[in-house]
Amino acid sequence: MTESKNNNYPTQKIKVGILGCTGIVGQRFIELLYNHPLFIITKLGASPRSAGKSYRNVVHWKLIQACPESIMDILVEECIPRNFDGCTLVFSALDSSVAEGLEETFAAAGFPVFSNAASHRCDIDVPIIVPYVNAFHMSIIDHQRKQRGYGKGFIVTNANCSTVGLAVALKPLMDHFGVDGVFVTTMQAVSGAGYPGVPSLDITDNIIPFVSGEEPKLESEVNKILGGCTGTRFNAAEFSISAHCNRVNVTDGHTLCVSVKLKNPATVCDIKKVLKGYKSVTGVLPSTPTACIYIAEETDRPQPRLDRIRGGGYTITVGRIRPCPILDIKFVVCSHNTILGAAGGSILNAELAYGKGYLD
Questions:
Q1: CB atoms near residue 64 (< 10 Å)
Q2: Residues noted as catalytic
């Protein structure tokens, strides 16, 4: 691939497709990829009932920013590999009910698949990548290709939308002080349930103290992300997480109240210092914000309406850092669930894969 001398971006953008293009995450992929310096959308995929129709005729666009007219005119394809000829990679916003088989089919056909679905996150040879934290886990791609006979194809997943903020916040604490245990309560935005999502009569003036499947994901994914990788297997981090997950009447932005048991003592000042000083382990990717962790000093922050779009939605905000009388330290985290916690996380993963030569 010919490289630009000025910015190491290809002189011709990499052609990509989006599987599951009509849902909220699919829409967010379109928003974030339009005018992206590396990637250009050339194919959109959805269910057979949408195939053959223009995107404008099948999508119920729900994002604040309008969908570009050039995207609206693209004909939607059925999610079959031959329909995506010419694409170097695909982003998957497929529902988990169909994602597992379709993603394997695309990977077997030679496509790198960057998935937002949960279907493959527990696979022993599929990484859950949060580039700020565990970019080195991508080394297992070679093993995955060999084991599954994928050729140039592979599957990389991003973390669950509630997992990502916790993983980023815990990484510097684990590195500097060690982590023995975590107690977390989430307040998760309704956009995390997709569209049409939670009925208004259920969520208005209400909190729903159950989000299907979220607590097991949160309690297991963080350990995989923060653990080691030998290139052929993952070694999970050895601390326990107890999670309570709640759906709240907020459009975007997940808020987590976190208490942490540390292996070594640390003051509030110590915690703030290591969080402020934390740098993404990937270096600079096209979508990397100036800071992946922002410390809010106000007593009533973070708040999703005010902090979710920080760093373009790629920065997590941590606030209310204080001693915990039961564990050691407690704080509040806010992250954008459909940007860093979904489509944006997959885009960061694709940028990372490009930088590491996995898209050649």
A1: 8
A2: 161, 254
